[in-house]
Specification:
Structural class: mainly alpha
Largest sheet: none
Number of helices: 11
Distance between the termini: 21 Å
Radius of gyration: 22 Å
Order of helices and strands: HHHHHHHHHHH
Strand content: under 5%
Number of strands: 0
Length: 298
């Protein structure tokens, strides 16, 4: 889930709309003997090869490794399983389930906020379990989240600051263009605003969802898994574009598709450059926090 703005005076569809490494292969050992001259020549070459592989990701814009924790042929089947078995039922059907159980056509704002929190946690847990079960045997999810050792220039904090600044500028420009072409829309999402104004519990729950759980969930799926998998089989620019399009489409918002696509591209570029999911998670979280603040104060 990501909160955003379509025209400069409006928010993108917010959270309430969503209820309803690099491991080297083992080398085959050569038979050793006292006079085995071949082994003394081959083994130094293996060490040089390992060093080349280790240093290669730091060259160019992207530092993503080509050896990924998942089989490249299972990328789309895994994404389909996530979308149709976790994302849609929990992210978009959750509120309907709560309304049915409580026999209420529309639950009160606090119930909506707490329900969103519960279903987002369930979706995050399900996504992490799915990724861990589809990983290659020699990999584990904990090591996947660990950042590779990169030069200081690839600092994820720098990537986060630059990415957030660029993202904010792009969204403002596209919002101004949308206002000029299609006219200004409502200043804020009334449902989100109602939840924010209802109680401290509602505000806290909504903030946790949009600034913590949703960024962690979506960056893990769309950047950590999808973008990483695509970048191992194609040009990184194409991988960023495709993963951003899927990210935008998964929000089921035709009006906001373009801006969500731009957000996905910025997040994807930040991840590719830093090699650290922390950068895209930070940008995602800061942007959602900004939109929540604007909604609350508007």
């Amino acid at each position: 889930m990501i909160l955003a703005r379509c025209p400069i005076s409006s928010l993108l569809q917010a959270s309430s709309a969503k209820f309803g490494g690099d491991f080297n292969k083992l080398l085959s050992p050569l038979p050793l003997s006292r006079n085995n001259a071949v082994s003394s020549i081959v083994f130094p070459k293996c060490r040089c090869l390992k060093n080349d592989i280790t240093e290669k990701p730091s060259k160019g814009f992207s530092v993503l490794a080509s050896d990924i924790p998942w089989e490249s042929g299972s990328t789309w089947s895994t994404m389909a399983f996530y979308i149709f078995n976790l994302h849609i039922p929990l992210g978009y059907g959750g509120l309907s389930i709560v309304a049915y159980i409580l026999h209420q056509p529309v639950p009160d704002p606090q119930t909506q906020a707490l329900s969103l929190l519960v279903f987002q946690i369930l979706e995050l847990c399900g996504a992490l379990f799915l990724l861990s079960r589809t990983m290659k045997p020699e990999h584990d999810l904990v090591n996947f989240f660990k950042a590779n050792k990169l030069p200081k220039e690839r600092n994820w904090l720098l990537a986060s600051a630059l990415g957030f600044g660029v993202l904010t500028l792009l969204i403002v420009l596209t919002s101004l263009a949308a206002d000029r072409l299609f006219g200004a829309k409502a200043a804020s999402n009334p449902v989100v605003k109602e939840i924010l104004l209802s109680s401290d519990i509602s505000r806290t729950a909504l903030a946790i969802v949009n600034c913590l759980i949703a960024p962690l969930l979506e960056e893990t799926i769309y950047r950590g898994f999808l973008l990483t998998s695509l970048a191992s089989t194609m040009n990184v620019q194409h991988a960023v574009v495709i993963s951003s399009a899927i990210f935008s489409a998964a929000h089921f918002s035709v009006d906001n598709f373009l801006q969500l696509f731009i957000i996905g591209c910025v997040l994807g570029c930040s991840y590719c450059w830093s090699g650290n999911l922390s950068s895209s998670i930070a940008i995602h979280s800061l942007y959602n926090a900004l939109i929540l603040m604007i909604t609350f104060l508007s």
